Amino acid sequence: MPPASAAAPVFVASSAKPFSALMDDAMAVMEAGMRQAPMNGNPNHDFVTMMMPHHQGAVDMAKAVLLSTQDPEIRNLALGIIAEQQVEIQVMQAWLQHHPTKETTK
């Protein structure tokens, strides 16, 4: 885990960067989030905590492409990804709230 003073990276969708840099940023934020996910040995819990930053990575990548394309099919796909992945993140957050953290014995 990084030191308490180290801030977790945050994705910023900005037209000031080229698309490839935005995708690199989105991947770096997603990977950091997945590495920092609080794992406890319970497969259900660990799956959910790892999937939340993974889904957020898809949202961030979709935001990046919306800044870079006017293709209506790609824009529609990206908007759908944002909507669907955000709902799934909310479902996972709710699941975590309703399932107290318990470690499993292997």
UniProtKB/TrEMBL annotation:
UniProt cross-references to InterPro entries, sorted A to Z: DUF305_CopM-like, Ferritin-like
Recorded superkingdom: Bacteria
Segments forming domain DUF305: 45-104
Gene3D superfamilies in the record: 1.20.1260.10
Entry protein name: DUF305 domain-containing protein
Source organism (scientific name): Duganella margarita
